[in-house]
Each structure stands twice: as C-alpha cells, then as structure tokens.
Amino acid sequence: MTTIRKAVFPVAGLGTRFLPATKAVAKEMLAIVDKPLIQYAAEEAEQAGIDTLIFIVGRTKNSIIDHFDKAYELENELALRNKDALLKIVKDTVPEGVNCVFIRQSEALGLGHAVLCAEAAVGNEPFAVILPDDLIYNDGDNCMQQMVDVYSKHKASVIGTQTVDMSESDKYGMVGGPKVEDRLSMVDEIIEKPAPAEAPSDQAVVGRYILTPAIFDILKTTERGAGGEIQLTDGIAALRKSEEVFAYSFEGMRYDCGSKIGYLQATVEFALKHDELADEFKNYLQALDM
Ligand code: G1P
Questions:
Q1: CA of 278 to the centre of ligand 1 (A)
Q2: pLDDT in tens, 2-53
Q3: Phi then psi for 21, rounded to 5 degrees?
Q4: Is residue 56 part of a domain?
Q5: Ligand 1 centre and the CA of 223: distance in Å?
Q6: What is the domain-level CATH number for residue 136?
C-alpha cells in the first residue's frame, strides 16, 4: 500500500479545560472563527488524499456525528431562500467521495486505546491519526500532506514533531534519534511526558501520525502508562523495536487549541487571514488601547 486512505480522529476526550463551554458540546466542535476544530482536521486529511474519516467518539460527542451528517431541514431552508453559497458550505462538510465512520470508545482508557478502537475500520493498511486539538496551518502543503509524502518515500511509520522548550517536555511525547535528512530523524527513543531531565531531545510529538497496522497488535498488550492511560506513545516505543519509525519536523505553525491561550492565538491569527474579516479585525486590534 503506497498511499494513505484512512484517518482516525480520537475525539472521545472530555474537554475539561474548556468547561463550561464543553459541558454539552464536544471540545472539537469549538470554532476557530467560523469553522469547528474537527472540520479543520477533516479538511487537512481530505487535502492529503484521505477518503475515509474514522471518528472515535465518546457518549457526549453526538454533535460531531451531527456535524458530518446531512442537515435536511437546514439544506431545504437554504435552498428555498436561494442561499447557494451557504448551502455549499453546509454540504461541503463532507465532500463527495469521502466516507465517515463513527466508533464509540465506551471507556476513556487513553489515546492508545482510542486508536485500537479503529482496528476493524482500518484493517491491514497504514493509516493516519489526527488530533484535532493541534491545529496546524501552513501556506503550502498541509502537515498531513507532507507526512504522506514522507510515508510514500520510506514506507514506514511517521510521527509529526516540533521543537519545544525543554521545560515543557512533561506536556508531550518526546522523541530522540539521529537525523537522516532535512526535517527527518529516526525515532530511537519515544517517551510520554517525561520530566525535562529524562527527555531524549527537545523534539515533541504533535497530534499527527502515520502508523503501520502492526501498531494494533502491540496496543492490545500495551499496559497503562503515564496518567494511568494506555498511551499511543508506549505503543510506538514498542513498534520501533520491530520496524523503523521516523520523526518528521513539519513545516507550519501549530496552535495548541486544547489550551485556552493556544485557542485564542489561533482565533486571532485565523481571523487576520479570513477573507471577510481580515481588514475590519486588523483595524479593531490596532485601535485597541492596550
Ligand atoms: C497527546 C499525546 C502526546 C502528544 C500530544 C500532542 O497528549 O499523548 O504524546 O505529544 O498529544 O498534542 P495529550 O495532549 O492528549 O495529553
């Protein structure tokens, strides 16, 4: 298999950092300007050539299922009023030829467990994992497109990484290994949320992965790790004992939309790029007396 057709979106988390906004609405449905985080993630996958979107949802995530479903009443209403541009926006949440699969993760046992829930839907082929909290913007090829290119060349698992301040190592999976080419390293070590002194380097895992299906059998026997959860990071640490795994330092800007400050930064910067809003919003910011 030389191409990546399927992407897994683990979206069962409770989103406690955004309560009460996330009491009744999935955190992935929070909008950056006018588009929910989950849709940015879906579009990144689609642009990378992926045609099957597999959402691992929790009990309280029905808004995500609704978002990617047909909205009959709304579509009829918009059609009657000749609101063609809006109708297109609503219909395009799932473009032609793209399929959505929804799987319930009945217990919140961690990211590794969420990915394992996708096994039957993925089958025996390499697949992408996208964490919608990590919103990544790039002017050229998006992050997943870049990673699909790396996969096509090396036919091995690829993890998206970026440089972080060592003091933040305990927020991320941290990787270490020798550089093989521009932006690409081997993963020799990968540790979930180590203290700065234990981190193998300053390269942090962000929420983009391409994994070979060998990860599934490994995750079945992966024990609970950091935070008492079944960690994808621990599964990848085991995977690299039998296969090469690469770390790819993507081109682009990542916003940690799982944190309030990252969410606000993304909101401001996406508004400043928005076709309808950019000028007015820029004027507003300039006029703020701070
Ligand atoms: C997860 C992963 C971690 C990764 C991070 C990126 O952690 O477990 O390895 O660095 O996403 O956002 P979480 O942020 O869900 O605690």
A1: 32
A2: 689 999 999 988 888 999 998 888 999 999 999 999 999 999 999 999 999 9
A3: -55, -30
A4: yes
A5: 17
A6: 3.90.550.10
